[in-house]
Amino acid sequence: MKKILLTFVLALAFTATYGQNKWQQKLNKHFVDAATKEYNLTKTQQKELADYRTAMVLAFAESNKQENDGVITAEEKKAKNKEASKTFNNAIIKLTNKTYQELNPFLARMRKELKNL
Fold this sequence. Notes:
Keywords: Signal. It contains 5 helices and no strands. By secondary structure, the chain is an all-alpha fold.
């Protein structure tokens, strides 16, 4: 089941990577570059992290669109965004071999930096 889900997420991320706008690509690149520097990621890990982050951003965008279109409620959007964040956080934990507590300062710094780009 995990392999099927991972394959689906990666396929979605791969497809969406080409559909992302330049701004999201810039943010994604900045995040991956910072994580690479911070955690000494390999090329394969960089690609996986970029794919996972793309999938998270797409999930956020989709839930925003669904809420705006009246398809889901604000609470449902919040739940979808929380699930996307959880999936992303679990992926970065696995890639870096760090705990969430160890990653949290980096993630908080990235949220601030990405807002100011």
